[in-house]
Specification:
The longest helix is centred in the first third of the chain and has 68 residues. The protein is built from four helices and five strands; from the N terminus they run H-E-E-E-H-H-E-E-H. The protein folds into two domains: about 70 residues; about 90 residues, 2-Layer Sandwich (GMP Synthetase, Chain A, domain 3). It has a five-stranded mixed sheet with strand order 1-2-3-4-5. By secondary structure, it is α+β, with helices and mostly antiparallel strands.
Amino acid sequence: MLAFRGSVTNESNQKSNQMEETARTQSKKNIGIIVGVVAFAVASVVAQQLFFKPASFDKAMMEAANELNKSCPLMVDQETRLDNAAAMPGNIFQYNYTLINYDQSELVTDTLRKYLEPGIINTIRTNPDLKIYRDNSVTMAYQYSDKKGVFLLKILVTPDQYK
């Protein structure tokens, strides 16, 4: 009988050990699942911030251009007319102007650039309405044409220039 009890005890111990091993294996699987779910959640948030936030800002830039275009053409001063604005690929917001009293032959574009660019950069740096563009590192483009619609120059102001 004693031998029989020892055999039952060994079987009991083996079953107990197997149950503990199964519990440890299940616990490891559960931990793996939890780690996987957490990693997926973190990856989803990161992906959303990287890929979907810019799309919503692109949409906001397009809406801003559309809203501004409802007022165009708009005289900025006696010489300059804002014809329209556009949200361009590559995080660029462009204003299209016409110098209504000048012909291309009457202007030196380098001189015009030297005259216009400092004021444009200062406006971008200080105008509260442009804060959202500064915060989102938008390149601002200012394209000028003469009174006949002939391209004169384009001034690009990058975030490095206005920050």
